[in-house]
Specification:
Blueprint (H helix, E strand, L loop, with lengths): L6 E5 L6 H8 L4 E5 L7 H17 L30 H15 L8 E5 L13 E7 L8 H11 E12 L17 H8 L11 H10 L3 E9 L23 E9 L1
Parallel strand pairs: 1-2, 1-4, 2-3, 4-5
Antiparallel strand pairs: 5-7, 6-7
Length: 258
């Protein structure tokens, strides 16, 4: 029920706060954006806000196919959910105005947007009672996932949800999607030199195990399967265990509850 989700947080929004603003259009009132490097810019996000207003007023379908063809998870329907989001054009016009104010840090806005950079190992004492924390292809870049999931557990209210789409692929570092799991540490460290973000090389089972360790209850996992071309070999990433399912899982949506 989207009406029950008022406080949301996004991990790693990058240069666009579009998903967070979308949540504000659908009823959320507070949006926290946590990133490691500052990317977002006012002008770009103002344009996105304008585009989102037009999308909601016109009740356009969710963008898919074309440049979005590889975006996971795959949805059963991409039609605009008008049975849930049945507000008037005036409502979306008002939301547009309030989001514009929030982007400009105007204290008169009825909505709040807080951009926290860098967020890792920083104490954010005013972040609590969050309803939903989400990310899209971000958690594979977080070096200390246990710290990250501990913080998320701390921020969430009881019954709060985390939703993470994690990409376990090599990120063009090797020819095969899971080839990065078969590179020695010294070579891997050399290959990562100069990259803005690390790749932690952790599989699905590692994320699930750490989530459980932090206190989360796993509610649903939607895997993206791929062929394992290394059937006769075992990964050589130090300190990481891979099970058979990991070897054919190139991505997954993980939903868990506090």
């Amino acid at each position: 029920d989207v009406s029950q989700i008022e406080r949301i947080a996004e991990i790693g929004p990058g240069d666009s706060l579009g998903i967070g603003m979308t949540a504000l259009y659908t009823g959320a009132k507070n949006y926290f954006a946590f990133d490691m490097i500052e990317h977002a810019n006012l002008e770009g996000n103002q344009k996105i806000n304008n585009d989102l207003k037009d999308y909601f007023i016109a009740k356009k379908d969710i963008p898919h196919g074309g440049k979005f063809k590889n975006t996971s998870p795959i949805l059963e329907s991409y039609a605009f959910p008008d049975k849930v989001l049945n507000q008037s054009s005036e409502y979306y016009e008002q939301r547009h105005t309030q989001i514009e104010k929030a982007l400009k840090k105007d204290q008169s806005s009825e909505l709040t947007m807080k951009y926290v950079v860098p967020w890792m190992h920083q104490e954010n004492h005013d972040v609590d009672e969050i309803d939903l924390i989400f990310s899209q292809a971000v958690m594979e870049h977080v070096s200390d996932i246990e710290y990250a999931y501990q913080q998320m557990y701390k921020w969430l209210k009881k019954g709060g949800i985390i939703s993470h789409q994690v990409d376990f692929k090599t990120h063009e570092m090797t020819k095969e999607w899971n080839g990065h799991w078969f590179i020695g540490k010294k070579t891997w460290d050399f290959l990562l030199m100069g990259r803005k973000y690390p790749i932690n090389r952790l599989p699905l089972s590692s994320h699930i195990n750490v989530m459980k360790k932090c206190g989360f209850k796993i509610k649903k996992v939607v895997p993206v399967e791929a062929k394992n071309t290394y059937k006769e070999k075992s990964p050589i990433v130090p300190g990481v265990k891979y099970d058979e399912k990991d070897m054919i899982t190139s991505g997954a949506l993980i939903l868990a509850v506090k």
